[in-house]
Please model this.
Amino acid sequence: MNRFQLLVIILLIAMAGCASRPVNPPITSVDRATGYRLATRQPHFKDHETLVVLAFSGGGTRAAAFSYGVLEFLHRTEIARANGERLPLLDSVGVITGVSGGSFTALAYGLYGDKLFDDYEQRFLKRDVQGTLIARTFNPFYWPKLWSPNWGRSELAANYYDEILFNGATYADLDRGDGPLILASATDLSTGARLVFDQDLFDPLCSNLDAVPLSRAAAASSAVPVVLSAVTLNNYGGTCNYSAPSWLQLLSSREGPPQTASRAKRDVDERLAFGDGAERPYLHVVDGGVSDNVGMRSVLDSVQLMEALHRINEPTPLDRVRRIVVFVVNAVTEHPHNWEKVERPPGVVIQLSQASAVPIEHYSYESVELLKDTAVRWRSLRRLRESPAFAAITDPAIAAELSGPDAEIYVIDVSFAAMNDQAEAAYLKDLPTSFVLPTEAVDRLRAAAGTIIMASAEFQRLLKDTGATIVSKPPDTKSEPKSH
Model:
């Protein structure tokens, strides 16, 4: 090594100390009437009796494109209601949850609304995001920052996402808009708890979500462990006189209804635990798929919370809701293998990958099935309450056990497994979990989403129950790729 090379290395190391990550700022007091949260989004909902939720799974560009196909279908599909009103199905969406790859589509739609359909394919879906990130990692220009202890590979990724998609936008931009509530989530590396980017969770942190860049939330939600670095958030918990709402305190207490709200109680306990800023001044978060790869935990916890609070006559923000429609947009795949056919076991890397992937895939399946089971139970309990036998019940305990929300739940499975075309399903399942896909793959993913929804018996049941009829629908993007 010559003196010039040594000097360059010394200068790079010295410059590394200059790099610093964005810091989420503190708040001095909590105001539940402001900030990006369900309570402030609800006035923007088009229909207060029907809550439509889109749950976007993880899976890199595969998930982002599949989720985008759902948005396209709902945007281009108009329905006529029984009262004669016509509107795009997308106007009925109130909440979109997103993890990992799905969080990009969710956040971008929250920011741009219908303008997203002008150029999202070119700006993100059909771009070699992964190749650019790898190139920047090996580019000496970025080494000083990458060597800094306060600025890792996920910060490099966040900056790139901002360049190509988010244009400096923060949650304040979502807060000012009138779109649905976008819930992107990550995973706390220390506890495995789910960290959702909404002000209801940032209140215990005594932090202002409005100042957080959308690109950083997307980077946190997609920060695959080892491949990308954890994203660090400052925790100021205990400095803003935060007091949990009464229903939160009820669920977190031992006197609360744990048997009817075990999942919701755990979520509440994890949320309140984030508020210990003295012991946990920094939170390091990674890919949201680690704790919830189909974006269903927010839905499941909210549904169970509704049920638990209804049984004790405690009001909830969703009391007016009569229909909960959940599109489970699941781009999780199952890659075939032939390990059982050979004597030699797979290598260490493959074993480690399977050790994490298998539990995540099984948990994803159980989450969807649990929501379907809840839908059946609510329907059965409602029929019991409507029967003449219920009026004769005099025991308050028995009556309480039969109580519950009157809302009907529709679970629309938008997954490759739900496809009738098995050859096409096999093609889509074999696509890699990466942030680069061929143009043809992106278009086929988009087309598949609408095809699956139209063939869904649950979707057809929803149309029948609401008296709605489809008066127009999107073209088949597989046979007629759109250009914008």
